[in-house]
Structures are given as C-alpha cells and as structure tokens.
UniProtKB/TrEMBL annotation:
Belongs to the UPF0173 family. This is UPF0173 metal-dependent hydrolase DRW42_21000. PANTHER family: UPF0173 METAL-DEPENDENT HYDROLASE MJ1163, UPF0173 METAL-DEPENDENT HYDROLASE MJ1163-RELATED. The keyword Cell cycle does not apply. The keyword Chloroplast does not apply. It comes from the Bacteria. Keywords: Hydrolase. Transmembrane segments: none annotated. InterPro entries: Metallo-B-lactamas, RibonucZ/Hydroxyglut_hydro, UPF0173, UPF0173_UPF0282_UlaG_hydrolase. The lineage of its organism: Bacteria, Pseudomonadati, Bacteroidota, Sphingobacteriia, Sphingobacteriales. One of its GO terms (molecular function) is hydrolase activity. Residues 7-189 form the Metallo-beta-lactamase domain. HAMAP family: UPF0173 (MF_00457).
Amino acid sequence: MKFTYYGQSCFLLEAAGKKLLFDPFISHNPLAKHIDIKSIEADYILVSHGHGDHVADLVSLAKQTQATVIAMPEITDWVAKQGIEKVHGMNFGKFTFDWGAVRMVPATHSSGLPDGSYGGNPAGFVLELDGKQIYFAGDTGLTIEMKVLADIYNLDYAILPIGGNYTMDVDDALIATKYFDCDKVIGVHYNTFPVIEIDAKVAVDKFEREKKTLLLPEIGETISL
C-alpha cells in the first residue's frame, strides 16, 4: 500500500489495484504549488466534509479522473449539480465495494460548502483493503466516540489532523491513539495556515516518548504502509 501526501488533508492511497484520493485541496494551497495536479489519477475521491480546504479541487479532479465521489449525500448532490455523474452517497454506515470496505464515522467539526449550502455531517472513514485497516479521521476534535473503533477494528494506521485550532493538536492526537489503540499515525492538517503551524520535531518526539510513530511525509512524497 502506498500513501502520497499532497498537503493539508489531501492524500492518495494506492491499494487493492485502486487509487483513492482524499479531500482534494491542491491548486489553492501555496505549499503544494509544485504538485502537477493534471498528473493525478484516481478511481475514487473520498470527501470528509465540505470546507474549501477539502473540496477546492473536487469537481475539477472528478471530471479529470472520472473517479467516483464518495461523500455525504449533501456533498454528492452538490457535485452532481456540477456535472459529476459518478457518486456514492453515504452517511454513518458501512459499504463493501469490490476492492474493500468503507465505514463512515463521526467527526466533531462543521461542514458548509463553498457556495454557502449545508454540507451534511462532517465525517471520517475507516477503510479495510489489502489486508490493512486504515482510519482517516477527517477534521475533528478529540471525541470519546473514537473509543468505539477499538471494539470494531485492529487499526494498522491512523491518519489524523494535528494542527490544532480547527481540529485536534498533537497532544490530543496522542490521546486519540490510546482511545482506538493504534501506534502508527500519519499527521495531516498542519502548517498550511499560521494558526495550524507546528514544530514537527517536537511533535515526532512526543510520539516517540509514548513509544508511538508519527509520520510526517513531505508534500509530494510517497511512503509505503
């Protein structure tokens, strides 16, 4: 399984013969200006909520890639009105595709679309594919509901926001790993704006002291999971 980071909360998972793109926000991110967005391929685009820093490139990339958009019904309705025909609306539940299973799980946040319309509930995803279980929390604060995941899954990796202010910070993310019992974390949603800037070394050291791993790939970097 490969993970490619595109900045903020946007990343690509390559597994089970599919390419899954999450929360596409690239062309409007100054930190990702070196990314050639026209070269990105995807079979599915998964969207956690409707804020601009998660959907700015959603419509253009859905058209470019012909990917199926997986998101709350309010978001899939929004993209359908813009000419995107391949959509799969979900809410807090589980669906099994031919490549693996996806469960939508709650996130503590808000969700409005760029045109001001309601974006449905904010969410995260748990994916089961290629023999691994991956949790992407979306934009969320620390919430006790995360403990339920430990009863359902044996998570291999958690992809967590760590920038604070709008979401969990590094300390909250560490607590979250204890809730859902996962020792390997990929950090996202940090450094894009001044209010979510972090000291990466301090963050990594905090995880190491708890005998956990925090991975912070560079924008454009691909790592193997």
